[in-house]
């Protein structure tokens, strides 16, 4: 696994040197350790911010049992890249409600970041971001998925995402009639 | 992209799927209901308002009238579909919101502010197709409604108890319903918004069109508007006609608890206004003078309820009574009406005498005027 910044690298063992470090150590479901800047973690993840503020961060590696090592590596990678990109307050969705917060288009590096992910890695990252309350990362990953749906017919969307059609023919026809405007070809 | 065998997308939580759908154009978002049962009507609550359809008029040069009509029709269709999509995504449930539908029923359980602009005007104009349509809205949490468009059948299904203000602007209609029907539609429209605390009415068709004249009609059309505290009425009347006063009287009659009244009257139809800049300037002097006169007069006489009811006889001057207003008693004038603002615009003839009469009427009859 290559990570361009040292901080994101998996570290098997880690001695706790200072009590007041400026990084936090996160432990994936499969036991790998990742280190991320405390500032970035607190800024980008509401869950980690809460844990840091509440003192429930384990210096030997905070267990994140729901997140696999690949996804956690992407999360940490994202945090580091984010910290290195031009700091912009507007990048973080300020509101908890996505219905009211204006969506900001992903920046170039964010696009590249999600574009290189495999199908499964993308969904792992969505779930990890959701678990950690990382609004901006959720925006970016959900945007990527929405782009995979854009301009596609239901059949094409089913194919891309392996969605099984469990409607009967009659039900499907009913839906198509009810929402005729949505199935109208331009 | 890896083609997994597992459906990772459908496995996401409803919230995440809504979040994704929110970023998908309305049309595709709606079509996801055909994916599988899991997707059903998720998109309806995704709040998607991405109007994907762009309307282009005359993109290329148009050579024939027919071509122009076709372009327009296509644009209208695109507009309707896109609007239906975005509205539906806003949890509207258009029962039959196809471009040709004549009745639209919409359910908006969460909407608090609704702006319906150019209703009917946009679609009905030009091609000479005057469409009769009806609108039914179910928005229990509605707080503010703005409606600008043609007078059509309108109904609020559930009482919008939190409705704070309704701003209704009725455009002049090329479609002739007949006078009775126009009146009926107007009062039904107003009645459906009876919970509003502030009501602004702009009538482009002439105030006499909405006046309920005669006892029988009043009983049939008028409805109590007990919540209305502020009323603004803007409209025009024929210079020689005083029927507008009847419309004003009707509204005063309905609004028992009215505290603040603004009347903006003109004796010229709104489409004949050429210069709106010097709108009220010409008659401001007259207006101020009459106000002064009546205030002085009011101070010098002791006004009791009997006085006000027989006021026309008591004051001998050139200002006559107003049919519909004078001699009637209105609950709001006795108890609640504290502020009255009157603005008049006189036409070239300056023959209108409704303005001064109204000034007189309110000066004499509004008991708690500040």
UniProtKB/TrEMBL annotation, chain A:
* Entry-linked Gene3D superfamilies: Potassium Channel Kv1.1, Chain A
Alphabetical UniProt keywords: Ubl conjugation pathway
Residues forming the SKP1 component dimerisation domain are 136-182
Q: List the InterPro entries.
A: SKP1 (IPR016897), SKP1-like (IPR001232), SKP1-like_dim_sf (IPR036296), SKP1/BTB/POZ_sf (IPR011333), Skp1_comp_dimer (IPR016072), Skp1_comp_POZ (IPR016073)
* Pathway(s) it belongs to: Protein modification; protein ubiquitination
Q: Where is the SKP1 component POZ domain?
A: 23-84
Q: Which domain of life is it from?
A: Eukaryota
Give positions of region: Disordered: 1-21
Could you give a single Gene Ontology term from the biological process aspect?
ubiquitin-dependent protein catabolic process
Q: Which family does it belong to?
A: Belongs to the SKP1 family.
Quaternary structure annotation from Swiss-Prot or TrEMBL: Part of a SCF (SKP1-cullin-F-box) protein ligase complex.
What is the documented function of this protein? Involved in ubiquitination and subsequent proteasomal degradation of target proteins. Together with CUL1, RBX1 and a F-box protein, it forms a SCF E3 ubiquitin ligase complex. The functional specificity of this complex depends on the type of F-box protein. In the SCF complex, it serves as an adapter that links the F-box protein to CUL1.
State the protein's name: SKP1-like protein
Q: Which organism is it from?
A: Digitaria exilis
From TrEMBL, chain B:
Instruction: Name the source's superkingdom.
Output: Eukaryota
What is this protein called in UniProt?
F-box domain-containing protein
User: What is the organism lineage in this UniProt record?
Assistant: Eukaryota, Viridiplantae, Streptophyta, Embryophyta, Tracheophyta
Q: Which Pfam families match?
A: F-box
The F-box domain covers which part of the protein?
9-46
């Amino acid at each position: 696994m290559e990570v361009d910044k040292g901080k994101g690298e998996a570290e098997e063992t880690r001695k706790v040197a200072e009590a007041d470090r400026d990084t936090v150590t996160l432990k994936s479901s499969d036991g790998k350790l990742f280190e991320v800047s405390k500032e970035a973690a607190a800024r980008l993840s509401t869950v980690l911010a809460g844990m840091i503020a509440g003192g429930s961060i384990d210096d030997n590696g905070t267990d994140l049992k729901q997140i696999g090592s690949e996804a956690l590596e992407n999360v940490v990678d994202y945090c580091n890249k984010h910290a290195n990109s031009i700091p912009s307050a507007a990048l973080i969705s300020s509101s908890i409600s996505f219905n009211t917060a204006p969506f900001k288009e992903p920046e170039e590096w964010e696009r590249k970041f999600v574009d290189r992910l495999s199908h499964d890695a993308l969904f792992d990252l969505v779930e990890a971001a959701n678990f950690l309350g990382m609004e901006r990362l959720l925006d970016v990953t959900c945007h990527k998925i929405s782009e995979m749906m854009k301009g596609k017919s239901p059949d094409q969307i089913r194919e891309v995402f392996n969605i099984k059609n469990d409607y009967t023919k009659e039900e499907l026809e009913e839906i198509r009639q009810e929402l005729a405007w949505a199935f109208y070809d331009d | 992209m890896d083609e997994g065998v597992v459906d990772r997308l459908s496995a996401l939580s409803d919230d995440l799927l809504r979040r994704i759908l929110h970023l998908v154009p309305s049309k595709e978002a709606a079509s996801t209901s055909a994916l599988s049962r899991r997707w059903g009507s998720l998109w309806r609550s995704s709040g998607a308002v991405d109007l994907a359809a762009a309307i282009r008029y005359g993109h290329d040069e148009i050579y024939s009238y027919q071509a122009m009509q076709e372009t327009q029709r296509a644009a209208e269709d695109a507009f309707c579909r896109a609007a239906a999509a975005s509205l539906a995504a806003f949890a509207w449930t258009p029962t039959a919101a196809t471009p040709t539908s004549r009745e639209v029923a919409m359910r908006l359980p969460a909407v608090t502010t609704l702006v319906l602009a150019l209703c009917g005007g946009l679609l009905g104009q030009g091609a000479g197709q005057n469409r009769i349509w009806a609108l039914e809205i179910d928005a229990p949490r509605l707080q503010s409604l703005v409606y600008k468009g043609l007078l059509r059948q309108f109904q609020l299904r559930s009482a919008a108890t939190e409705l704070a203000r309704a701003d209704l602007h009725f455009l002049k209609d090329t479609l002739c319903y007949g006078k009775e029907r126009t009146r009926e539609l107007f009062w039904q429209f107003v009645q459906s918004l009876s919970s509003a605390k502030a009501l602004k009415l702009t009538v482009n068709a002439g105030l006499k069109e909405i006046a309920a004249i005669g006892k029988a009609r009043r009983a049939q059309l008028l409805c109590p508007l007990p919540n209305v505290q502020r009323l603004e009425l803007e409209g025009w009347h024929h210079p020689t006609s005083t029927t507008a006063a009847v419309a004003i009287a009707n509204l005063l009659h309905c609004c028992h608890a009215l505290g603040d009244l603004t009347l903006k009257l003109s004796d010229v139809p709104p489409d004949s206004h050429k210069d709106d800049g010097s709108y009220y300037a010409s008659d401001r002097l007259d207006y101020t003078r009459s106000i002064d006169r009546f205030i002085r007069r009011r101070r010098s006489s002791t006004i009791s309820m009997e006085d006000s009811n027989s006021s026309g006889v008591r004051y001998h001057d050139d200002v006559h009574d107003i049919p519909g207003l004078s001699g009637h008693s209105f609950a709001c004038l006795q108890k609640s009406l504290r502020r009255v603002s009157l603005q008049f615009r006189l036409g070239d003839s300056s023959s209108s005498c409704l303005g001064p009469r109204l000034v007189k009427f309110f000066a004499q009859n509004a008991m708690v005027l500040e």
